């Protein structure tokens, strides 16, 4: 259940108290199956799985939720092919052309017949709110998907003024300085992945390295020619490895054996296992995010 990608938002201490209403607010916004004529539905599901009823899971000051959606799979090619068959039948049977208005009606009829038979694709995105430190942590590397989860929480609560990160230090400049000088902040070491780009033009040169030592003349030569660091692999405190982007999305997060060895042995139940893993994960991310907040000057809203 460990989150592998972290898209982050911040909220004020005043908002934190309102988040205690999540447990009572979410049941009215639970995910329901898509109806025969619906393209999609959205809502919350239990972090404990299909058979559980609770839509939140709380450990300390952290509350986990799982936003779900069910989308009907009805490709445009399938609809267009059905419309073409019906139009062709009219042409052959009645010997006349089909007008644009009639074609639209035929398409609507085809949609109404095909939609109830369409396959449903479910998806789930987990997130948690840290009321003490003012973080929303969404398990996705997609800003759009994270915003969708945030919108669902806002809808459930009536309002939720969480905001994207607003760094006072340029992430790209800072990441580039770390690699070019080898002077990383205390506790951080370089990983084995980097993406460098020429910022002069949108179509500028891009260099990517994976599974490679980054403290090399080859990497520094790219920097001397004007490229800047857009993504960099890092290891924090020998406990977490990740790739940090200039958008401050934390991707490809992995705990090292130092952390995994601290997992509880043979939990009594699924709930107990979730408790233990959630507590461990939230504690590690709390330390990491506090460090990133200092380095990039990420203020918590007042």
UniProtKB/TrEMBL annotation:
Belongs to the RdgC family. Pfam families: RdgC. HAMAP family: RdgC. One of its GO terms (cellular component) is cytoplasm. May be involved in recombination. The keyword Cytoplasm applies. It is found in: Cytoplasm, Nucleoid. One of its GO terms (biological process) is regulation of DNA recombination. InterPro entries: RdgC (IPR007476). This is Recombination-associated protein RdgC.
